[in-house]
Amino acid sequence: MTTPKQTSHPATQHAFLTLHEIIQKARQKLNHDHWDYIVGGTETETTLRRNRAALDALAFRPRVLRDVSHVSGETTFLGRKLRLPIILAPVGSLELFAPEAGAAAARAAGEFGVSHMLSSVCEPGIEAVQRAAPDALRLFQLYVHGDPAWVDEIAARAEAAGNAAFCLTVDTAHYSRRERDLAKRNIRRHTVPGREHQPRLTWKDVDRLKSKLKVPLILKGIGTAEDAALAVEHGVDMVYVSNHGGRQLDHGLGSMDVLPEVVKAVNKRATVIVDGGINRGSDIVKAIAAGADMVGIGRMQCFGLAADGSAGLVRTLELLEAEVNICLGLLGVNSLKELDGSYLRATTALEPSGALSAFPLLSIDEKSFY
Ligand SMILES: Cc1cc2nc3c(=O)[nH]c(=O)nc-3n(C[C@H](O)[C@H](O)[C@H](O)COP(=O)(O)O)c2cc1C
Fold this sequence. Notes:
CATH architecture: Alpha-Beta Barrel
Bound molecules: flavin mononucleotide
């Protein structure tokens, strides 16, 4: 197996030898409000748990004796070579618990070699993130909080700042009831000015945006084959399967249960991205084997940043890379390209699934309410 490049400081490597330790450190550093903001979902948190349940219900079918001495999780995305098929998913309000917020995340992405998608509700904003990480593969995600002229102005700024793709999040027509936040009166995000534009969006807005953009258009929050097919018909370049990490519609399917129908409907006419519960290298491998081109990482990104800023996030990515490479080698392949559905089999999950069930060595009570 090729030795993965190590880019974090030896002290950071020594401090975090497992992803468990990253999360444990994040828990120690975060106050209860910020912890619950990150780990929480909507109402019963069923969609959130189903994201993990769908991953946990897939087992691998390994092949052996195939010379796996040159394993690599590399891929090409938007014309750039990446070390892993990862988009650091858009996360709003990162500044609450990570001082440099989107700038720290973009810098980590550039330093390690993955892509970063900045949320329109994340500090320090488009131009400052460009200055912080000019060479990183940067993408931009928008919540529509204004009229078409407002959207066009932001799209033009995102393009001028070198963002390689523009993403519209479409699973937030209404802001959900996230009860961990509500019960603690942590409700700043529930009352954003201009939010009334979001429920009015239709496919006509997608057509309008597509006709204006010079960079590829991504729709984030696709949850059915029907909408995936519509997206392709409307010229969307990338279909992003997501339920917002279980933070929007409750009682939805896990993203990995939706992925196969979307892959089939898209039929290679667009790039397919998936997120939701992807916390481990083996989860990344499962998603790619099931037909995704790229995966989004939400909460793991938050934990890495909370644990140790940009360095903590680079370390998180290194650990994910180690897990991906070992998983690929043990499956009998040297690259992601060799994966397909034959490496997966449906099974039953062993543990009750939850935001932290990929980390059984932790003894953090996910359900406790502070
Ligand atoms: C704290 C937090 C804030 C988020 N903010 C945004 C956002 O601003 N825009 C967006 O499209 N998705 C947002 N998401 C959803 C993520 O982009 C992503 O879809 C989700 O986190 C993936 O699931 P995971 O956290 O299990 O990896 C947020 C998620 C979290 C955890």
